[in-house]
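Q: Exonuclease domain-containing protein, please. Structure only.
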Amino acid sequence: MPFPASPDTDAPSPAPAPGTTGAGPSPAPSSLDFTAIDFETANRFIGSPCAVGLVRVRGGVVVEERSAYMRPPRTRASFDPGNVRIHGITERTVADHPVFDELWPRIEDWILADDADELVVAHNAAFDMGVIRAACAETGTRHAPLAYACSLALARRGYDLPSYALPRAAEAAGVPLERHHDALEDARACAGIVVDLVRRSGAGTVGALLAGCGLSVRRLAPRLP
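A: Structure for Exonuclease domain-containing protein:
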């Protein structure tokens, strides 16, 4: 079974990445490739994913999107009221969806389908990489090594804002964010922030942008079952 498509992936041609049209002095670089990811979690345990959003950027434009609900690992399946208030996802929402360890291999295959060294970007990447690490450990599920970067760290160096939370950074990038804590919406915003920062800096790639900010690509070590 293929990884579920988001409702917005039926367009016949690639859609511009958020932040790549309208404002800004120049188009996004043709070498700008990465995948943005966002997880929502069911409870205080970081390895309790209940939703994921993914946005694939090639040449500075969005070429594909995916999103899915999932049941958290069976041992961590409760939904805390505080988390539900944030994202609106309940046990009932995910009841008919695959459990994390059934869905993760398809998510990973999709991320790495074009490039085994695909760069993954998230806003506060330590959280999203922590979700993968903890959920895989909890379920005994393997994951491949992942190269990743943090749009929050980049935003702190590229913008002058009172807060670098996703809504503020997205606004600075000219990216619409109507439903914060919707996993796909948040992944789109993350993608748009990175595209905007690369374009502003003239860096050309996320790696070059990181280097210019005194940062580097980080690595999520693989986990073997």
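A: Brief note, in case it's useful. Residues 8-24 have pLDDT under 50 and may be disordered.
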